[in-house]
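Re: the request from the purification team.
They wanted to know what the chain is likely to look like in 3D before they choose a buffer screen. I agreed to run a prediction and write the result into the notebook, where they can find it.
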Amino acid sequence: MWTIDTLIWAVIGFVLGIGATLLYQSIRNQRISVRWYEMLIGAIGLVMFFFGLQNFLTGFAEFASHASLIFLLIVCLPGLLLFGLASRLASMHKNVS
């Protein structure tokens, strides 16, 4: 059975696929330079963010709104900070051109 959660995750997967494809093409065409640890930090940040988002949505579905809000604060916020750190580190490099 299709629910709104299924649609949300399908859209998120579609957007992540497009983003990963564009990142791969930009790295391959040498428009941006990204080091391995920046990719690792960004991937860990995205995984933490989506893990927290999934638990937030299921917490509200189970009517545990306070617990899901705390989990959002404890897991999603550090995930966003890690992803922001990775993007900031990548933008500090001079572009290879």
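For the purification team: The helical segments are 4-28, 36-61, 65-92.
Please add any questions underneath this entry.
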